[in-house]
Design a protein that fits this description.
By secondary structure, the protein is α/β, with parallel strands linked by helices. The protein has 2 helices and 5 strands; from the N terminus they run ββαβαββ. The protein has a 5-stranded mixed β-sheet with strand order 1-4-5-3-2, with helices on one face.
Length: about 90
């Protein structure tokens, strides 16, 4: 995983600027990537999506897959029990 992971005890304070939130905890790979990509396709350029993912394979695979698909992964936070991934929709 190439993006830095930040630890946060108060994830709510870190959501400033988030336009849409998607809770995919418990969703297996590759379905979590597919659902994330579908949500991003419904959003406007420049908007930020926050995705909640489980540890292990989801947080290892989804950020890299999104980067390869052309999306900007801006932040990954360890929220003690899940990870919050922030992704920006690319400009058209």
């Amino acid at each position: 995983m190439s993006q830095p992971i930040h630890s946060s005890e108060n994830a709510a304070s870190d959501r400033a600027g988030v336009d849409v939130q998607l809770d995919l905890r418990g969703t297996p790979c590759p379905l979590n990537f597919v659902r994330t990509k579908l949500q991003l396709q419904r959003m406007q350029a420049g908007q930020v999506l926050e995705v909640w993912l489980d540890g292990g394979e989801p947080i290892e695979q989804v950020p890299d897959s999104l980067t390869m698909a052309g999306y900007g992964v801006e932040d990954i936070r360890d929220c003690q029990g899940y990870f919050a991934l922030q992704v920006r929709c690319p400009q058209s």
